[in-house]
Amino acid sequence: MAQPSEKPALKVLLCSPRGFCAGVVRAIESVERALTLYGPPVYVRHEIVHNRYVVESLRAKGAIFVEELDEVPDTGAPVIFSAHGVPRSVPEEATRRKLFALDATCPLVTKVHREAEIHHRRGRQIVLIGHAGHPEVIGTMGQLPAGAVTLIETLADAESFGPRDAKELAYVTQTTLSVDDAARIVTALKAKFPAIRGPKKDDICYATQNRQDAVKFMAPKCDVVIVVGSPNSSNSNRLREVARTMGTDAYMVDRADQLDPVWIAGKTRVGVTAGASAPEILVQDVIERLRQMGARTVKKLPGTEEMVRFPMPRGLA
Fold this sequence. Notes:
Blueprint: E1 10-14, H1 22-38, E2 42-45, H2 52-61, E3 63-66, E4 78-81, H3 89-96, E5 100-103, H4 107-121, E6 125-129, H5 135-141, E7 149-152, H6 155-160, E8 169-173, H7 179-192, H8 206-218, E9 224-228, H9 234-245, E10 249-253, H10 261-264, E11 269-274, H11 280-292, E12 295-300
Parallel strand pairs: 1-11, 1-12, 2-3, 2-4, 4-5, 6-7, 6-8, 9-10, 9-11
Helix pairs in contact: 4-5, 8-9
């Protein structure tokens, strides 16, 4: 029998699904396969995915990360576009310079690009629901001429928005948004502009939806939630927000040594999940750190099984 002075046993609940999605796997494998087929260096425009561990691991294998193509020399080495997508001007510049370009844009991001293009061809003004400055948003807006896409970030933006023609209006969304926040914005747009057209299938990707749903299931069972993910990862930040919206304390760490003992002091149930760009090895490191802090058991929760896999980009198949 436990003595009154003993600490209560710390239990870890492990979210499912968590970590890598099919688009991230495809992007990382694209860099690794290019290194194998063509040898280093392989240039990558922007971080291939938003995770520090992944980027540093690929850099150690010979990948060179750049922000713009003018940093890529004319040597014939491959240059890969990240999973977030790029403005149309980037592949056009690559073609002009005759660079060996490989496109690792997530197919679900490419879907949003094509939707925006179709709406534009049909004469519609396009609303993009997303976060300013995020590479995916920059890439989507960059598919069309300046002014063709209006960015809506908040519910207030939606309520104050005034289109050129309310009957010729369409919306698309960033794939890694909070499902609930995006739904509120879409509802507001539809209430204000009943003729607005949207995608036949939601733009928020299956992995974002599944991971947020899993956190909604897990968070009420926990005293605190730890999200494994890098600070610049949109989907990881949304997981932390979802947990907090459920009324549970939540924190995000890039690696296990960032885990603050104060966060779990006096807690008995700690939930762990990971953003779609965070590798499982980092999750296991966090679990090991929690064991060092007194965790006795780790229970994997049930969740949606993901079977999605995308083919490799042209030139790497």
